[in-house]
Model the fold of this input.
Amino acid sequence: MELRGKTALVTGGGIRLGRAIALALAQEGCNVAIHFNRSREKAIEVKQQAIDLGVKAEVFQFDLSDFSSLDQLMKDVNNQLGTVDILINNAGNYKKGNGLKTEYDSLQATFNVNLFAPWWLIKAFESQLPSEKMGKIVNICDAGIFRTATDHFAYRLSKKALCEMTHMFALELAPNITVNAVAPGIMLPLAGYEHIDLEQVAARKIPLNRIGSPEIIAENVLHILHQDFMTGSIIKIDGGENIV
Ligand SMILES: NC(=O)c1ccc[n+]([C@@H]2O[C@H](COP(=O)([O-])OP(=O)(O)OC[C@H]3O[C@@H](n4cnc5c(N)ncnc54)[C@H](OP(=O)(O)O)[C@@H]3O)[C@@H](O)[C@H]2O)c1
Done:
């Protein structure tokens, strides 16, 4: 797909991986709808950087925990930037705790952001896309889905389900909408884990001996968007950490 002149919605586009994805899209000439929840100032910075790259950009605030209001998000984007051709489900919620320690509320909050919001947005995306147009969806999963572990119970379950949802919608939305995913390994320290020396972790756990970066994920999202014969694929970008 030629990206120039297309419009993309990036959830969680104000910071970290989402920011890199939004800016990479703008660099390719794509208009960008930058969704955020709490990172308003950062999202506005991304908007300005995108505009400086010569594309249209706008910011949209929505709490994805209230996923049932997401039709409004898509309508707001349509009103300001026109039809959305590309949807990047990037926003995510990462909660600690194994299965026994996880409370129902925490499980539900994680699923709302990581699974139900992408599901709702995919439906809204499909219904606003004219049937003669091509559409592309990229879900940001996690390379940890390829293994079973007991930590981060709610997060892992929701990302495994997002992976399966990628396959299911790839079948259901073919042939005019492709649905793929990127599954990142360690790219950045998580909020609250900045004290951990990720280079040391990488030396111990990652065959390529280093962590990735938001830009590497953005490059792989662009790679997917340029493919016309690819749907239902999950690209694992983790330096070999999860070879199983
Ligand atoms: N960083 C990594 O190494 C890594 C590794 C594997 C997978 N991933 C996945 O990659 C994606 C991006 O990760 P990240 O590390 O860049 O960011 P992150 O810190 O995991 O996620 C925060 C992002 O999600 C948004 N978000 C969280 N809760 C939200 C809510 N209730 N409503 C709306 N937006 C919400 C935040 O928006 P605001 O800041 O505006 O509130 C922010 O943009 C996530 O899906 C994550 O699971 C990341």
About this structure: The chain has one domain: 7-237. DSSP finds seven helices and seven strands in the chain. The beta strands are 7-10, 31-36, 57-61, 86-89, 135-140, 177-184, 234-237. The chain has a mean pLDDT of 96.
